[in-house]
Amino acid sequence: NNAIKLTNNAIQLTNNVIQLTNNAIKLTNNAIQLTNNAIQLTNNVIQSTNNAIQLTNNVIQSTNNATQSTNNAIQSTNNVIQCYRILD
Known about the structure:
98% helix
């Protein structure tokens, strides 16, 4: 009887260890999933930042284009003024 009880106790302890191991594996998998989620969020932030930088660059380019157009208009106006001066 004692041998059977000891064997049953050993089996129960083994089952407990298996359960604890399974719990540890689940916790590890959860940690891995959380880490992957954090990496994905970080990548999303990086992508959003890159998009914002691109938009800013587009605005700068548009501003430069508008400035160039303004300068061209000023030059054209100056050319017309010069023509009138020559005619006068």
